[in-house]
Amino acid sequence: MNLCTTLFEGAAEAALDRHVALASWPLPEPALAYFPDARSALSDRDLGAGTFTGSDAMPDHIPVLLDRCVELLAPALTRTAADGSGAVLVDATLGAGGHTEKFLTEFPGLRVIGLDRDPNALRIAGERLSPFGDRVMLVRTRYDGIKGVLADSGYRADKVDGVLFDLGVSSMQLDRTDRGFSYASDAPLDMRMDPDAPLTAADVVNTYDERTLARLLREFGEERFASRIAAQIARRRADRPFSTTGELVELLYQAIPAPARRTGGHPAKRTFQALRIAVNGELDSLRDALPAALDVLANGGRIVVMAYQSLEDRIVKNQFSAATASRTPPGLPVELPGHEPEFVALTRGAERAAAEEIALNPRSASVRLRALEKVGGHL
């Protein structure tokens, strides 16, 4: 595990990364004919996000529900001092560092631990957050590694004041065409958030058996034509393995009936979501990360989670419901001392972005925000 306050790999590597970020493989004309909106269509979370051009400027990335996140977490971060002195916030999904930058600016005494498995995100965030010096520590890890990070960095695992999750694929990952997350450009069929991880989307498409592929597309992508798509993938790869996103897009056109292609957003959206989730183990990681995050909160600490698709939000909803439930055995007429809920909800169900924010930042249209405060446990 790499613990550092800044993460720069040198001018030469940064220049190389900027060059790669500019690389583009336009979809073959047949695929563009199939999906005429493919040049600009992105996922629900990233519609309207600016493109990372590779310049020294930060990506044109607008953090979702930024002011609401500050409003919800501020009471926990300022319990000791109004400027956040003595408080620790874990940004479990650092990305470009937009949320963390806001918190560090608003609370000059606050310390932030930022987690991300993507070294490119850490490098960009490190540049953005460098003015804050040792008030911020960046760590390359999945967010389910939160307890290990705290132990390695000397923080007590029950003394964190706030935790923030902004789930899903980031704008930077979509904008770098070589990563293979987007169906907007032809690129290697990769989709790894951690470029050092062993499993790629090409591995899944080319080696998973037809039944497993269909289940994956149905469960992770909620794709109603999962069996049909899996069967066509199996037939096609027997002749020639898939290597690019454009090849997969062409097959999806052939597999999905024409009436279905005209409704419900981009026809490749659900398959790409399913492959990305499978490659990165996102749902399993989230199931492990949420209880760990709840455990590390001090009494009075708060957690905010933003999800962008129903599978993630369902996990958050279920775990938050369990955390806010009474531990008194059912049927007893009174609450047993010490069995009260350990957490209280700060939102009524899931909050949505206002119309004004969606107009300015379309990627916020699908967000679902939930938040809790810890009211029992360690002091």
Itemize the secondary structure elements and their pairings.
Blueprint: E1 2-4, H1 11-22, H2 29-34, H3 66-77, E2 88-91, H4 98-106, E3 111-116, H5 119-129, E4 136-140, H6 146-153, E5 160-166, H7 171-175, H8 201-207, H9 210-221, H10 226-239, H11 245-255, H12 258-261, H13 269-280, H14 282-296, E6 297-307, H15 310-323, E7 343-345, H16 355-360, E8 368-374
Parallel strand pairs: 2-3, 2-5, 3-4, 5-6
Antiparallel strand pairs: 1-4, 6-8, 7-8
Helix pairs in contact: 9-10, 9-13, 10-11, 14-15
Summed up, what is this model?
It contains 16 helices and eight strands. The chain is α/β, with parallel strands linked by helices.
Task: Report, as a whole number of angstroms, the end-to-end distance.
Answer: 29 Å
CATH architecture title of the largest domain: 3-Layer(aba) Sandwich
Overall structural domain count: 2
The CATH superfamily of the largest domain appears as: Vaccinia Virus protein VP39
Structural class, please? alpha/beta
Low-confidence stretches: 5-59
- Portion in helices: 40-55%
User: Order of SSEs, N→C?
Assistant: EHHHEHEHEHEHHHHHHHHEHEHE
CATH-defined topology of the largest domain: Rossmann fold
Mean pLDDT value: 82
Strand order of the largest sheet: 1-4-3-2-5-6-8-7
Q: What's the story with the biggest beta sheet? A: 8 strands, mixed
Count helical runs.
16
Number of strands: 8
CATH class of the largest domain: Alpha Beta
The shape is globular
State Rg: 22 Å
Strand content: 5-15%
Mind explaining what this structure looks like?
Helices cover 42% and strands 12% of the residues. By secondary structure, the chain is of the alpha/beta class. It folds into 2 domains: 24-43 and 181-280, DNA polymerase, domain 1 (Orthogonal Bundle); 66-171 and 282-374, Rossmann fold, CATH 3.40.50. Strands 1-4-3-2-5-6-8-7 form an 8-stranded mixed beta sheet, with helices on both faces. α4 links the parallel β2 and β3. The two termini are 29 Å apart. Residues 5-59 have low confidence and may be disordered.
